[in-house]
Recover the amino acids of this structure.
């Protein structure tokens, strides 16, 4: 009996040790963000560098949890910074696009080199998505911020449902490619290190995939978020690309989609260096650490905590947009 | 690991994207440090920013007498606009990559992908041009 008790204590200790870091990180984000929300009305309560520093620290932690949870930093950035920092949503979305773009640019080359991102699969989808992201960015900057907040809140809550319920398929079964993907040669080979062999893949349902990418690009431009959360399910579950190829190609697609939307924000004056640069650097440093902590952090726990964080931020965005929780 | 299955155009794209992203990030950080530490004058004094960054973009531009579109290039000597150089560079990386792979597709007579690259380039250029995103104020 005593032995069982000792074993139980050891097990609990191990669990706490494994999960302590993500719990602490999320608590820090909540604490920092709540403080930010409380002192926001008084601009003089903090020296001018206080907010960029708080933003840098928050983004650093967001970057750490973004990697093991499997979501892009951009999708966490906009609702959390938009909801709890004193910056106007116009500037937050401009910075959010740059956060997503910089992360995608950092990962893109190595993903292309090892075949986890595929140019032939990505280019047709990215073309449509980048064109629609321009429309999304223009509309987003033209409509009232409260309306964008409401739509953002609803979208984030939708992402929470998607993240909590969506299944993944490591190697979807694509019996035959559709005519369009065959004509465009949207197929390839990637080396799966876990199996130690080359995997041949092909895709189907390409016309529907293209159509959905028009919508995804629009949302990316409208909200200033990276759209990995939507890209991966469409590539993997709908079109049948292997999960690793879907994730890699999604990241590469963002380099094109987010850059066209970023230009609109830049040309409209909605990019403030003081907000964008600390966010980009903080997020990239955090992602760098997060990638190295992959073996320490328990991905399933981090994922659940990120879903909770998004649920909170989504509700905050919705209530802020409705004028209920200012 | 055997990477023979990676196409020439994909490898070329990856190399250029890697250089573009690295140089862009260095540029971004250097210009930002120059801005924050006051090595360059700022168009909007940094201690005034907390009173302005909560405004909608239109209002911010009006109060700070800031122009939109490419006119920020005229104020590149000021730290807040110099920092935009790195951002513009990062946003332009894909243009060079797309341009570089068109000859590969053209040599292979892959007309569809030449077309896709040309249209993708046009879309990026249209976004960057400022025709859709400002140019007045």
């Amino acid at each position: 009996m005593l032995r069982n008790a000792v074993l139980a204590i050891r097990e609990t200790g191990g669990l706490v040790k494994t999960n302590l870091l993500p719990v602490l990180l999320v608590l820090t984000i909540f604490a920092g963000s709540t403080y930010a929300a409380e002192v926001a009305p008084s601009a003089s309560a903090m020296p001018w560098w206080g907010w960029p520093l708080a933003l840098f620290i928050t983004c650093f932690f967001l970057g750490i949890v973004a990697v093991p949870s499997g979501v892009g930093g951009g999708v966490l950035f906009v609702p959390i910074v938009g909801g709890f920092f004193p910056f106007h949503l116009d500037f937050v979305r401009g910075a959010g696009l740059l956060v997503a773009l910089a992360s995608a640019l950092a990962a893109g080359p190595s993903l292309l080199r090892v075949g986890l991102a595929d140019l032939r699969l990505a280019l047709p989808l990215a073309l449509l998505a980048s064109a629609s992201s321009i429309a999304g960015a223009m509309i987003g900057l033209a409509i009232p911020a409260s309306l964008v907040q409401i739509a953002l809140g609803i979208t984030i809550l939708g992402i929470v449902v998607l993240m909590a319920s969506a299944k993944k398929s490591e190697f979807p079964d694509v019996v035959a490619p559709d005519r369009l993907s065959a004509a465009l040669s949207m197929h390839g080979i990637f080396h799966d290190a876990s199996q130690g062999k080359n995997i041949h893949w092909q895709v189907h349902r390409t016309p529907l995939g293209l159509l959905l990418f028009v919508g995804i690009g629009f949302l990316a431009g409208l909200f200033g978020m990276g759209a990995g959360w939507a890209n991966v399910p469409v590539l993997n579950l709908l079109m049948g690309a292997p999960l690793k190829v879907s994730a890699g190609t999604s990241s590469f697609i963002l380099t094109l989609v987010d850059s066209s939307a970023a230009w609109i924000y830049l040309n409209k004056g909605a990019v403030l260096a003081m907000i964008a640069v600390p966010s980009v650097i903080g997020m990239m440093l955090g992602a760098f650490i997060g990638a190295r902590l992959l073996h320490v952090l328990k991905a399933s726990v981090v994922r659940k905590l990120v879903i909770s964080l998004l649920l909170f931020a989504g509700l905050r965005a919705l209530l802020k947009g409705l004028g209920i929780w200012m | 690991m055997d990477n023979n299955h990676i196409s020439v155009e994909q490898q070329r794209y990856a190399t250029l994207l890697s250089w573009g992203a690295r140089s862009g990030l260095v540029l971004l950080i250097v210009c930002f440090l120059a801005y924050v530490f006051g090595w360059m004058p700022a168009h909007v004094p940094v201690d005034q920013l907390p009173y302005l960054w909560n405004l909608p973009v239109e209002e911010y531009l009006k109060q700070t007498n800031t122009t939109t579109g490419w006119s920020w290039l005229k104020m590149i000597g000021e730290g807040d606009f110099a920092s935009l150089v790195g951002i513009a560079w990062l946003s332009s990386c894909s243009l060079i990559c797309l341009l570089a792979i068109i000859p590969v597709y053209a040599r292979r007579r892959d007309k569809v992908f030449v077309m896709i690259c040309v249209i993708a380039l046009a879309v990026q250029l249209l976004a960057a041009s400022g025709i859709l995103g400002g140019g007045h104020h």
